[in-house]
Specification:
The protein is of the alpha/beta class. It is built from 20 helices and eleven strands. It has a nine-stranded mixed beta sheet with strand order 3-2-1-4-5-7-6-8-11. The chain has a two-stranded antiparallel ribbon with strand order 9-10. The N and C termini lie far apart (about 65 Å).
């Protein structure tokens, strides 16, 4: 972050002081949504001013004919419209004479009206993008205060802090907001925000040196991994699905503030395992961080081709491989998938072992397994697993990347140079003692298709070699020294017992205890 942005973020975080337990999620949802609304309003203002030149938008808007034309232009280009009086700069300027509660009440009312108008002014084409964009923002939530006055004041204060954030790079600032939220709020499913370093690694792994038209993330969270992959691969369209409606809204805003229009970014809501909103579509590049060990019920999916080709269903309490099966069903003939999986899913047997065997031995889809340093962001004991269609070899490359982690601000992460180093080694696919191994199909079969990196890569022994003869001599010398000290202890104890000064009951009791302890 720049110094200016850091200062602004500190002021924003100050608005969270005193937030009741459990209320931070409401505050962060609102803060992220306010920032997204501010971007949308800026986009509207930019289009309108380009059309009007030096004419004042608020004046021209009063003419019914001009207003209709502008609304049509905005709906075509942006997917919605927003009248000038609901642009932040406009309504804040109109409220310059207000203070205290009057200002807060007017400001909160304008915010609600603006969000409502964005949803109501869509076209049939843009409606899926915007109609539910702010559904999870409840400005009257009790988390903002027990009284109406408190809620109005807190909402107003939060918006003004968000409004003060510098917007030299909209996408980067939104990412900073997401990172702050992820560090402070625990959201369901554990997949709210994939650490940026891991997302960058995934994007590099699916990069086959050719531009792709579309990228896909079926468990997209807030969409950061999808956006990074799309930017690296030169994608023109972005597709994702997210279980939680509120998180899906943040993902849609993320796409918008990164310049992905409503035509080019589609975010579906729902459980991707039971309700595949993009059934039948294929993608050349897929990235994902599914919720680890999620519960699913395959009872109603007995005839679903995504899951029936692997002999068994993934366990109900551990849907990790069900997510992989879903993604493989959406992969093109030459496509690549980089997915973050919990380490346990790589070696558990029974149904999961059967699925791994089919994917590796029968279909030859597994390309690499890269174990990550422990506790990166919200991830614990995870690995990035790479699948490719159209492979010409049968080996699997495994890398222990635990040593690539760097401690920053008390947390482990992969710095940019570490990500680059991992990608370089991945493309080289070389055997490196204590670091990387190229496992043959025979090896994998002999290990019951256990894919955990620790099974194939032995960590280097970091302890110095032991000089056995010297160590034995030191042990003998220490034993002799202990014997001498023991004799001296007995001598002093006997001398003390024989002393007339030790005749008191208290001293005798202490001496007995010392003898027993010995």
């Amino acid at each position: 972050m720049t110094q200016r942005r850091t200062t602004a973020f500190k002021k924003l975080l100050a608005a969270f002081k005193g937030v009741p337990k459990g209320g931070e999620r409401v505050y962060w949802q609102a803060a992220l949504s306010f920032f997204g609304y501010r971007y949308l309003a800026m986009s509207v203002e930019t289009v309108v001013r380009q059309r009007l030149g030096t004419q004042r938008p608020e004046v021209v808007w009063q003419d019914a004919t001009h207003r209709q034309r502008l609304q049509t232009v905005l709906q075509e280009e942006l997917g919605f419209y927003l009248e000038p009086q609901l642009w932040p700069e406009q309504f804040l300027a109109a409220m310059h004479h207000l203070h205290g509660h009057d200002l807060s009440m007017r400001l909160t009312g304008a915010l609600q009206q603006a969000m409502d108008q964005i949803a109501a002014s869509t076209t049939p084409t843009s409606r899926p993008t915007f109609v539910h964009l702010f559904d999870d923002v409840d400005l009257d939530s009790l988390q903002f205060g027990g009284t109406a006055e408190q809620r109005i004041e807190n909402v107003s204060r939060l918006f003004l802090r968000v409004y003060q954030l510098p917007v030299d790079d909209w996408g980067a600032v939104y990412e900073n907001l997401l990172q702050c939220a992820a560090a402070r709020v625990h959201l369901p499913a554990g997949s709210f925000y994939t650490p940026r370093s891991v997302s960058t690694l995934q994007a590099g792994l699916v990069d086959q040196g050719q531009a792709v038209t579309a990228v896909y993330d079926p468990t997209m969270g807030t969409g950061s991994s999808l956006i990074l992959a799309g930017q690296r691969l030169g994608a023109t369209t972005y597709y994702g699905q997210e279980l939680m409606p509120g998180t899906a809204s943040l993902a849609q805003l993320n796409l918008l503030v990164h310049g992905v229009s409503y035509r080019d970014g589609q975010v579906a809501v729902g459980d991707v395992l039971t309700a595949d909103r993009l059934a039948g579509r294929k993608f050349a590049a897929i990235v994902a961080t599914p919720p680890a060990a999620a519960y699913w019920d395959p009872h109603y999916l007995a005839n679903d081709p995504r899951f029936t080709a692997y002999g068994q269903f993934a366990p109900k309490s551990k849907a990790d491989w069900a997510f992989v099966e879903h993604m493989l069903a959406h992969l093109t003939d030459r496509g690549c998938l980089a997915v973050v999986l919990p380490v346990g899913s790589l070696f558990r047997q029974e149904a999961e072992g059967v699925i791994r065997r089919q994917i590796v031995e029968r279909d030859n889809l597994l390309d690499a397994v890269i174990s990550l340093p422990a506790k990166i962001g919200q991830l614990t004991a995870s690995a990035v697993v790479v699948f490719r269609r159209g492979r010409t070899t049968r080996d699997v490359w495994l890398l222990d990347a635990a040593g690539f982690g760097t401690k920053q601000d008390g947390k482990i992460d992969l710095v940019a140079t570490a990500v680059t180093a991992i990608l370089d080694r991945y493309h080289q696919r070389q055997e490196v003692p204590h670091l990387a191994h190229l496992a043959t199909l025979a090896e994998l079969r002999a290990n019951a298709f256990d894919l955990s990196v620790a099974r194939y890569v032995t960590p280097a022994d970091r302890h110095p070699a032991v000089d056995v003869p010297t160590t034995l001599r030191e042990i003998q010398a220490t034993k002799r020294e202990l014997a001498q000290l023991d004799n001296e202890y007995n001598r002093l104890l006997a001398q003390l017992v024989q002393s007339q000064d030790a005749a008191t009951p208290e001293t005798l009791a202490l001496l007995r205890a010392m003898s027993e302890r010995k």
